[in-house]
């Protein structure tokens, strides 16, 4: 394991999952990701790497704390 992390704590987030989480589209380009991070999420990101990291965070949060089904 890397850096002492248990493999049960690691989860893969695909590029398409991250794009969809932030923009609602799996076909978003770097500029669309940056725009969504700045305008939609109101994040103060300076480049597309930071926007991508935020998108991965959205995916991870959704997996750790899934929404309860509405009944």
Summarize the structure.
The protein contains 3 helices and no strands.
Describe the protein in words:
The chain is mainly α and 71 residues long. Helices cover 52% and strands 0% of the residues. The chain is built from three helices and no strands. It is globular and about 35 Å long.
Characteristics:
single chain; mainly alpha; 3 helices; 52% helix
Topology summary:
Elements: H1 15-23, H2 30-40, H3 48-64
Helix pairs in contact: 1-3, 2-3
**Total number of beta strands:** 0
What would the average pLDDT be, to the nearest integer?
A: 89
- DSSP strand (E) fraction? under 5%
Query: What Rg is obtained from the alpha carbons, in whole angstroms?
Result: 14 Å
Catalogue the unreliable spans. none
Count of alpha/pi helices: 3
Task: Work out the helicity level.
Answer: 40-55%
């Amino acid at each position: 394991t890397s850096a002492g992390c248990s493999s049960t704590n690691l989860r893969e987030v695909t590029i398409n999952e991250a794009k969809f989480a932030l923009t609602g589209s799996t076909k978003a380009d770097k500029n669309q990701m940056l725009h969504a991070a700045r305008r939609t999420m109101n994040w103060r990101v300076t480049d597309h790497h930071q926007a991508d990291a935020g998108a991965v965070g959205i995916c991870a949060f959704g997996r750790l704390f899934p929404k309860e089904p509405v009944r």
